[in-house]
Amino acid sequence: MDEKEILAWAEASGISVEQAKEYLKILEPLDKKEDAILREVFSGATGPVLELSAGRGEFTRQLLEKFIKPEGKLYTTERLPEVAEKLVQAIPDKRLEMLVSDSSTLPLPDGSAGLVIFRAALHDFVSDDGDVAKALKDSVRVLAPGGTFVIYDKIKDGYKDVETESAEGRMERMNVELAALEGKACWGLHYLKDYISLMEKMGFAGIQTSVLVMPDQPGYVKYMTGNLHERRPAYVKRWGEKVNALLDSLYADFQKTPAKALSMAFIWGKKR
């Protein structure tokens, strides 16, 4: 972040610029560890890379800047056409191809990707029955034999009750509650062992893991409360007035929940 971005973040979080800089300084060795793990994961990858659930494109940019070769190819998915269009406009890179799709119906041939990866997305996966292995079946289909499948996501290890011990944990519960408003199931936060079991269920071999213990983010509650306040009209438009009670409950819980961070975990394996 440059000085302007740091100042804006500090103001939104209700912290000082010095606090913001100190937090970013603490993140530096974790960023280096993340970079080293990704380089290890990508070292044996051949062929195109598929990123699931691009969201706002932060990880997409990181992949293009550091891990996709000049002659390489990155497919990335986004199920909402308007979001996909904005991402294409924001990231004008000839190596990038946007797929307006979810993970269950990918418009790619069998075995066409050498590596499948997604960051902080699996815990938000929504489906009719909550069967995540089923929802990911098509992403396994497009992965070539010997290809690498990488989950990079938040875990709730270290907490007895993550929703009362971590404001971030309580925040992540909201996606489960929003899905329930539509009669659907969201996978939600899980332990590292659950991700390993999922990888085994999908048939991957040589599963490896690495955990990044994240520092607590100063001003997390204020920052997220502000973001949610801005999004409330859009939430009401999508889910109706009943979403207001959900958001009010979240705000109330935030006031009594410590701003403890969740760890991030890499889990990866090879397709047999």
Give a written overview of the molecule.
With 272 residues, the protein is of the alpha/beta class. The chain has a single domain (3-271), classed as Rossmann fold (3-Layer(aba) Sandwich). It has helices at residues 3-13, 17-43, 58-66, 81-90, 132-135, 137-141, 162-165, 167-181, 192-201, 220-239, 243-254; strands at 49-51, 74-77, 96-99, 113-119, 126-127, 143-155, 185-186, 204-212, 263-271. The strands form 2 sheets. Strands 3-2-1-4-6-9-8 form a 7-stranded mixed β-sheet, with helices on both faces. The chain has a two-stranded antiparallel ribbon with strand order 5-7. The longest helix is centred in the N-terminal third of the chain and has 27 residues, at 17-43.
Strand order of the largest sheet: 3-2-1-4-6-9-8
Dominant shape: globular
Spatial extent as radius of gyration: 19 Å
Mean pLDDT: 94
Give start-end ranges of low-pLDDT stretches: none
* Helix content, binned percent: 40-55%
Measured between the Cα atoms of the first and last residue, the distance is 41 Å
| Count of individual domains | 1
CATH topology grouping? Rossmann fold
Strand content: 15-25%
* Element-by-element helix/strand order: HHEHEHEEEHHEHHEHEHHE
CATH architecture title: 3-Layer(aba) Sandwich
Number of helices: 11
**CATH class designation:** Alpha Beta
- CATH superfamily membership, which one? Vaccinia Virus protein VP39
- How many strands appear in the DSSP assignment? 9
By secondary-structure content and strand pairing, the structural class works out as alpha/beta
Largest sheet: 7 strands, mixed
